[in-house]
Amino acid sequence: MSRCRTAVVLVALLAGATAQAQETPVRGGTLVVAISADPGHLNPAITTSGATHAAAELLYNGLLGRDERGEPVPDLAESWTIEQSGAVYRFRLRDGVSWHDGTRFTAGDVKFTFDEVLLKFHARTKASMGGVLASIEAPDDRTVVFRFKHPYAPLLQQLDATEAPIVARHVYQGSDPQANPANASPVGTGPFKFVAYRKGAEIRLARNPSYFRRGVPYFDELVMRVIPDDGTQVLALENGEVDYLWGVPGPQQSRLQADNRFRMAQTSYHPGGSNCIMTMSFNLDRPVLKDLRVRRAIALALDRDAFLRQILFGEGKAATAPISSEIPWAHAGGLAMPAFDRVEAQRLLDAAGWKKERQGTRTARGVAGVIDGTRLAIDFLHFPTFAKYGELIRQYLGAVGIELIQRPLEPAVFAPTVFKDRAFDTNVISYCNGPDPEIGVRRMYHSSQIGPAPFTNAAGYRNDRVDALFDQGARTVEREKRTPIYRQIQEIVVQDLPYVWLVETPTTRAWSARCGGFRAWTGLFAETAFCKP
Amino acid sequence: MTARYLLRRLAQVVPAVAGILVITFVAVHTAPGDPVLALAGEHGDAVYYAFIREKFGLDRPLPEQLLVYVGRVISGDLGLSFVHGRPVAAVVAERLPATLLLIGTALVLSTTTGVALGVLAARRAGRPSDLALRTGALLAHAMPSFWLAQMAAIVLALGTGWFPVQGLTDARRAFTGWRYALDVAHHLVLPVLVLAAGELALTTRLVRTGVREALATDYARTARAKGLPERSVVRHALRNALLPIVTVIGSRAGLVVTGAVLVETVFAWPGLGQLLLSSIQTRDVPVLLGLFLLTSVSVIAANLLTDLAYVWLDPRIRYE
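YS: structure for the whole thing
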């Protein structure tokens, strides 16, 4: 039933995409986009905040962009070469690019942005590249050279406006990038330029008439509307007040789907994090969860398809490997992931010394490090928005005699509780793999990533072999050589089970059927978009 | 006499505000939660988070942070917002007009209509129209505002197409002058209706009870016996019944910040309520403290004004 529906949706989406491609773009008009949070400032180079990136990426460019499959394509750089088996990357910059204030864009801007802004303030780029980058050189106005201490594989995936937007040296030089007034009235190179920022209400952008891609953008004006409630966002789309939504909540998707005034598309890209998998973590410091049999029993007791049906309303995929299927070359197929099997789960729990006397919660009898008679009750920390995951896991674990105690915590409390205090048994986190495993997967498993930094190795997982494989993967530039390395990693962690990988969660964009030309898979989503009046 | 009273009350404001400031500072800082995520974004390394903490002084001992903060507030500086990177006073001030407009309109509407309906119900006590008003008021008061807001958006906006469901203005058109005012008024309708509904119900029931009681007093009977028209009798009764109403309206001053959170969120109204919510979520401590300060000052001011209104409404009241 749900497969059938997915197929119908796919056909409908493909048909929609073809119909759009045939339409001729219309010039002029205003695009109104709903954003969920007031970004506070509009400098995407000093933060990884999804709110700022959703609102501001159209003002900027990266050295490279990304195509529909997430592969790098030219943006500010028109070509590149990889030298010394991946330790040196040389970029040739596009000619005739200017900043919104008319100043010419040069290689010096790129060097300045990395040295003084991204590698100091962009959390992801700093964490991944900071330690291995030896230097960035700008030998002439149109050449940038990245030199690494050793071959560095993921660089080309880290140069779009999400990971590395380029800002203007003449605007930021000699200032504290976090306090520069230009953060509220930005100057970029992007398809749209800044007009006004009404705090808490909207950001108004206008067409950049001297954009380096001639002929685009088509809109005269673009308005980012702050609408915090996602239900209101859908109502505003239906009422014709906005044209484009970054996401549609599950229950509302079928309503919009049935309405031919709207179009929808799924993408796993989001400026706040791409290729996300809802993941249950085990605190491996806890005696109860140190026992692989208990972790395996928990994994076996959960029916991943139920999460897909009941929480995502079919819009997503049950996870089939630790790495997202949206990174196809790294995602391992045919892994022995624990499949839903209550009988086996019960057997493993019995074998581990957690006995079921009557109906109800199991108790310990001869479990190492646990007093006999202790009930098998574990806590489960989650963001309030993920409460449904907790309810479903509680229900499934209850069926095999494990009591789950849900503890909803706001993000600002969740992060220090899990990563600094390590005060939890289990939790659920939306781990976004990013465009390369080096960016978003390594941090979940590498032992150097155990520590207070939020959304790193929550399990506290240590495996020397896995550490070595990740280090090898990061230094191997040829993709066909990286694939087997990440396959090995996934085979090991599926055996060790520091996590249970539940569902892949793409987001569903929606827009008015009057409009087309959106590129939902990039932060420059409206560069080639248009609306008929 | 009242002047001396006023001075004494004003002198009490300073220690009250200072106390509130210290208590809220300690409360906000001892509550669990870490602003560093909002400050720095996700996926950083430990060194980076430590650097950001140091930069914003979050690594200092709490008493030291408190002293620095109080010192700044005394010199009129509420600090820098973590999220917005700008002075708190500016961040709060730019959201204030939208909230004042929303709350002010809702309070005026609910008070005037509520008094009118309350008087009507009191004069028709026991009749079907009174019963209808009382039932309606009870329903409106009992209805949760987020539900009412959703219903208003679905039925009145989507159903009729007459009203927008979000924002302060039309995103597609940049009006100026009186057309801008009309645009804002158009966007104001639904949030004001929802916000006023609950207040209106409360005021109606209070006025009805108060006027009924007053109409049963000796002075009302005397007035009627003197042959005064019923209109004048009701006017006298109403003035006496207004004292509790004024108290209720005065106590609503705190709403300026807190009460409109739900309505502002549902209707994407860019006011202080939304700012409060997002600041709590991101632990934007300086903005939170600024908002608490504003709330406490406005509650204190409203109480003072309420006391003064008593004197004007009821000349028998004397403050020593």
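YS: worth flagging: Chain B touches chain A through 56 residues (CB under 8 Å).
IM: good catch. Also The first helix of chain B runs from residue 2 to 30.
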